[in-house]
Amino acid sequence: MKQSRTLADFANWLSGQGIDGKAGLAVKPAEQIPAAMLARLANMKDGQVAVVPMGGNHVSVLQLQGSQFQPVTQEQARDAIKRVLLGEKRKVLLEAEIRKLRASGKLEYASGFAPTPPTASSEQPTNQP
């Protein structure tokens, strides 16, 4: 990474090693960045690189090219806050619906696919020396 001049160079080096990698550029306002990622970016200086685990065998390598403080209007802030609150409400409702469905769910096996009932000998442990 230190020998690469850009993230695109690093992605090309990864490809040469047989590792999938992509480079991209994004310009986003803070309200469009996930909170966990924003907390990480807020502590970075321009040009700094961070490696962020994404789950499984994936990581994101981020380089903060530049940042600027830019106040938003009250209307812009209101819209962003509404979107966040709506997203949180949707998540809570979805989780409640999933719990409800799991609690009321019933499994029915198709013929030939039902598990075999345990036999009397397998239910009771044997205490043989």
Report what the structure shows.
The chain has 129 residues and is mainly alpha-helical. Helix content is 41%, strand content 10%. It is built from four helices and two strands; from the N terminus they run ααββαα. The chain has helices at 7-16, 35-42, 74-104, 120-123; strands at 49-55, 58-63. The protein has a two-stranded antiparallel ribbon with strand order 1-2. Strand 1 and strand 2 (58-63) form a beta hairpin. The N and C termini lie far apart (62 Å).
Distance between the termini: 62 Å
Number of extended strands = 2
Question: Outline, from the CA principal axes?
Answer: flat
Task: Tell me roughly what share of residues is in helical segments.
Answer: 40-55%
Strand content: 5-15%
Structural class by helix and strand composition? mainly alpha
| Gyration radius from CA atoms, angstroms | 26 Å
Quick one: biggest sheet? 2 strands, antiparallel
Series of H and E elements: HHEEHH
Secondary structure tally, helices? 4
Strand order of the largest sheet: 1-2
Average pLDDT confidence is 81
Instruction: Detail the poorly predicted runs.
Output: none
